[in-house]
Write the structure tokens for this entry.
Amino acid sequence: ASRMHQYLYYHLLSGADLPLKSQDYIHNFFKENQGKEFIEFWNDKFHQKDLNRKVSRYYFFLKYYKNKKHPLHNLTSTFRNLALLIQKISQFKRKRNFDFKKGGNWVSITHPLCRYIIKNKDKIKKRLRYTLCPDEIFIQTLVWNSPFRNNIYKSKDTNPGNMRLIDWTRGN
């Protein structure tokens, strides 16, 4: 989308997202907050512990992790679990020279940040290779360790900075 046209914002939504406000309200909101990056950061103890678990060790063979029908699943699962066990026993931690951050996948970001993410695609892939669930980590980590950090909307607020209201309490 950023190659075809320069938009003010790019919105990543889930297939179940519904707008709770009118189009006029939404357009006015983004106009009033132009230049802000709407990204959620999870800073509570549970998510920090989960983040540390996902980035501190190497997770190999993730391509086959969920696909139990793949012929290599059992073999790669055994090697992955053995590698994790060895890392745990030896108290191995991946070297980190930057702050990892975690948050929701759904964001609303400006064109400059969109281009910055695309420009840093190789850096992201290298930095988060063998990381568990990097989709909740890569945008937050990249933005937190960049000049765009100053543009984060409500970065210290407990409400979601991505302006999504998600009800995780009902259903599965």
